[in-house]
Amino acid sequence: MSVLVNKDSKIIVQGFTGSEGTFHAEQMIDYGTNVVGGVTPGKGGQKHLGKPVFNTVQDAVSETGADTSIIFVPPAFAADAIMEAAHAGIKVIITITEGIPVADMIKAHSYVKDRGSRLIGPNCPGVITPGEAKVGIMPGFVFEKGGVGIVSKSGTLTYEAADQVVRQGLGITTAIGIGGDPIIGTTTREALELLVTDPETECVVMIGEIGGQLEAEAARWYKESGSKKPVVGFIAGETAPAGRTMGHAGAIVGGSDDTAQAKKRIMRECGIHVVDSPAKIGEKVSEVLA
Q1: Which residues does substrate bind (predicted)?
Q2: Of residues 83, 96, 158, the one with CA closest to residue 122
Q3: Which of 69, 151, 186, 289 lies in the 20 to 30 Å Cα band around 204?
């Protein structure tokens, strides 16, 4: 089983004919992902990478039955692209774009929620269910199928964790890159819940970073859920100075509970197996599953 995307997902690419959309759509198709078309306003009726191009998401949904979208639209127009997808009935909207204005995302976040769609990102690497669907920019060859779910704010640490898990002779059910912006569609807690309640996921790796309360909220949910499914956690940014943004726009320590030390303490108190180095993720997963 999997969460969010699988071999039956029908995926469209918004920003299909642009350089980023073209490059990553080609990688997704090569991986075996069921890309059914794409959207570029003004280019409807053309073919690109052997797939049909549509002027609007509504046209794409009507013609292909698409249920999932991945967005490579420039920041100034990306929030509109998100809302267009939700309006057209797309159920899973994965937004790769970085740098979307916060005011735009507040509006888009509310719009998507009101229509019952699920937004992943923005500023994320996407979602992958190994061997079935790669809807994002992650290196597919790193991921092998197995029983470990991954939820991560960091793109590169998603790949690193997957590589370590695979090297331990294990594999991945679904990896979800939730993104590191201040306003994202799916929180750490929501992604963790998807994986904890997935019957084929035996263990979850939860990778967070300084800033905000997402990891603490996820840890408290995990404790309250009473789940016996092991969760291995890591928080990036332990050496970051207070008050300085580190990498992601949302990675800034605003208070005492935003630090890596505080987050790790809360996670441990809630029963999560916390590692202090990302190099230990794979070993800890193997240990808790032994």
Answers
A1: 159
A2: 96
A3: 69
Pick one of 3.30.720.10, 2.30.110.10, 3.40.50.261, 3.50.50.60 as the CATH number of 138-289. Answer: 3.40.50.261
68 is annotated as contributing to ligand binding? no
Q: Any binding-site annotation on 17? A: yes
Catalytic residue, chosen from 24, 48, 109, 248, is: 248
Q: Which residues of the chain have pLDDT under 70?
A: 1, 240-247, 249-257
Tens of pLDDT, residue by residue over 96-155, are 999 999 999 999 999 999 999 999 999 999 999 999 999 999 999 999 999 999 999 999
197 marked among binding-site residues = no
Domain limits, the chain: 11-120, 138-289
